[in-house]
Design goal:
With about 425 residues, the chain is mainly α. It contains 16 helices and no strands. The protein has a single domain, classed as Growth Hormone, Chain: A, CATH 1.20.1250.20. Helix content is about 75%, strand content about 0%. The radius of gyration is 20 Å and the shape is globular. The C terminus is likely disordered.
Length: about 425
C-alpha cells in the first residue's frame, strides 16, 4: 500500500475522488433533510432517495456508454456536468419548489452510476493486477471514513446556513475534482468497437449472470433483502422525529454512527471472506443488518445508535462478498456489464422498496416496518448461509476487489445513506 500511495497518479486520483465523494454525500444527505424541513413529510423526504437510485433500472445502458469513451476525460466532463445540474437548487425556497430537489436527485443518480463505471475503468488502466487490491482497500477506507465525517458536516452546514450552502459546497468539490483529474496524466487506449448492436452488448452481462449459479444466488438474495432495506430511507426520519423527538438534522449523527460501524466492517470484510467464503460472509452481513434494524425499534438513543453501528458493520461484508465473487466468476471483458446487470437486479428491488416504504409509513407504524425489515434480512441471511453450507464453502476470494458499483449500497455516493 505504501508503494501505491507514493505514486503521484494514484494520489491525484484519490484526491479527486475524495473531493467529489465529500460533496456528493453532503448534498444527498442535505436533500433529504431539506425536503423534510419544507414539507414535514417522511414520505416526501424518502422520495429523494428513490429518485436517486431509480436510474439503476437502466444501468446496463450507462455501462455500455462508459465503455465507448476514454474514462479520464469523461470523468472531468461528468464532474462539470454534475456541478451545472445542481444550480437549479438555488431556486428552492419553499415547498412549492420541492420538485426541483427531486429532479436534481434523479439527474445526480445518473451521474453516480456513470462515475462508478468510469472510475473502475481508470483503475484498471492505471494499475497492474497486483496493485488493485491495495488500491481498492485505500478507496474503501476513504469511502467509509467519509461516512463518519460528512454526515455531521453536511447536516451541520444545513442547520447553520441552509440548503443553498450545501449546494455551494458540492459545486466547489465537483469543480476542484475536475481540476485535479485534468492534472492527472493517464495513457488510455482508444475504445475498440465490438461490432455488436447495443442490445447485444447489454444482454451479455445478463447471460453470464444466469449461467453462474453461485453469483446468481448471491445477487438474487441481496435483491430480495433490498425489497425491504429501502424502507429505511423513509423510516429513519420517523425514528428521528417520532422515536427520538429530534430535529431532521439529527440524521447526521445517525449516519456518522453507521459510518463508524462501516469502517470496522470494511477493515474486517476481506479477512472474513478468506476464512468463510463469499456466500457465508454475505449471510453474516445480512443478519447483522437485520439485527441493527431491530435495535432501532427501541425509542431510546443508545439502542438506536448501537443499531446504526451494527448495520454499518454488516453492509461492507455484503458488498465485499458480492464483488469478490463477481470478479472471480466473470471474465475481464464482461465485468462492467455484469456489474451493471447486478445493479439492475439489486437496484430495482431497492427502488421499489423505497417507494413502498414511503407509502407504508403513512399508514403503518415505523416500528412495525422495522420489525418486518429485521425478519426478512435475518431470513435472507439464514437462506444464504444454508446455500453456502450446501456448496461446501467452495467459493474462494481473489486478491483484487473491484470498487463497489451499486449506487444505493455504495458508489461515489456510497452505501445506503439513511437506513
Amino acid at each position: 500500500m505504501g508503494d501505491l500511495l507514493r505514486r503521484s497518479d494514484f494520489r491525484l486520483l484519490l484526491l479527486g475522488l475524495c473531493l467529489t465523494m465529500f460533496g456528493d454525500r453532503a448534498l444527498v444527505l442535505a436533500n433529504g433533510i431539506w425536503v423534510k424541513s419544507l414539507t414535514q413529510s417522511d414520505a416526501a423526504a424518502g422520495l429523494t432517495i428513490l429518485l436517486l437510485v431509480a436510474p439503476s433500472m437502466v444501468s446496463p445502458f450507462f455501462g455500455v456508454v462508459v465503455d465507448k469513451v476514454r474514462r479520464r476525460p469523461f470523468l472531468i466532463v461528468l464532474n462539470l456536468s454534475c456541478a451545472a445540474a445542481v444550480v437549479p437548487l438555488f431556486l428552492v425556497h419553499d415547498r412549492k419548489q420541492v420538485w426541483i430537489v427531486y429532479a436534481v436527485s434523479f439527474l445526480y443518480g445518473i451521474g453516480l452510476i456513470l462515475n462508478d463505471s468510469a472510475v473502475a475503468g481508470v483503475l484498471k488502466t492505471m494499475l497492474g493486477e497486483q496493485e488493485l487490491a491495495s488500491a481498492n482497500g485505500v478507496i474503501q477506507t476513504l469511502r467509509e471514513g467519509m461516512r463518519l465525517v460528512v454526515p455531521l458536516a453536511g447536516a451541520g452546514l444545513f442547520a447553520a446556513f441552509g440548503g443553498h450552502a450545501v449546494v455551494l459546497l458540492d459545486m466547489a468539490t465537483l469543480l476542484l475534482g475536475a481540476a485535479v483529474l485534468a492534472v492527472l496524466r493517464l495513457r488510455e487506449p482508444s475504445p475498440v468497437p465490438t461490432g455488436h448492436r447495443l442490445r447485444g452488448e447489454m444482454v451479455a452481462g445478463i447471460r453470464h449472470m444466469f449461467r453462474t449459479p453461485e453469483l446468481l444466488t448471491l445477487v438474487l438474495t441481496c435483491g430480495a433483502a433490498l425489497l425491504v432495506i429501502g424502507f429505511g430511507e423513509t423510516i429513519v426520519f420517523a425514528v428521528i422525529d417520532r422515536g427520538l423527538h429530534r430535529a431532521p438534522a439529527f440524521l447526521g449523527v445517525l449516519m456518522s454512527m453507521q459510518g463508524a460501524g462501516a469502517i470496522v466492517g470494511g477493515a474486517t470484510a476481506a479477512h472474513v471472506v478468506r476464512r468463510a467464503g463469499e456466500l457465508t460472509t454475505a449471510a453474516f452481513g445480512l443478519a447483522l443488518f437485520g439485527v441493527g434494524d431491530a435495535l432501532m425499534m427501541f425509542a431510546h438513543l443508545p439502542p438506536v445508535l448501537f443499531g446504526c453501528t451494527v448495520a454499518g458493520v454488516g453492509l461492507p461484508w455484503i458488498l465485499v462478498a458480492l464483488y469478490t465473487l463477481m470478479q472471480r466468476r466473470t471474465p475481464t471483458h464482461l465485468i462492467g456489464r455484469v456489474a451493471t446487470t447486478a445493479e439492475v437486479l439489486i437496484g430495482g428491488p431497492q427502488t421499489v422498496s423505497i417507494a413502498i416504504g414511503a407509502a407504508l409509513i403513512t399508514v403503518v407504524h415505523y416500528q412495525v416496518l422495522l420489525l418486518v425489515m429485521a425478519v426478512v434480512l435475518v431470513g435472507c441471511g439464514l437462506v444464504l448461509g444454508a446455500r453456502a453450507n450446501a456448496a461446501g464453502r467452495s467459493v474462494r476470494p481473489v486478491t483484487a476487489l473491484p470498487p463497489p458499483m451499486v449506487p444505493e449500497l455504495s458508489g461515489r455516493y456510497g452505501s445506503s445513506e439513511s437506513s
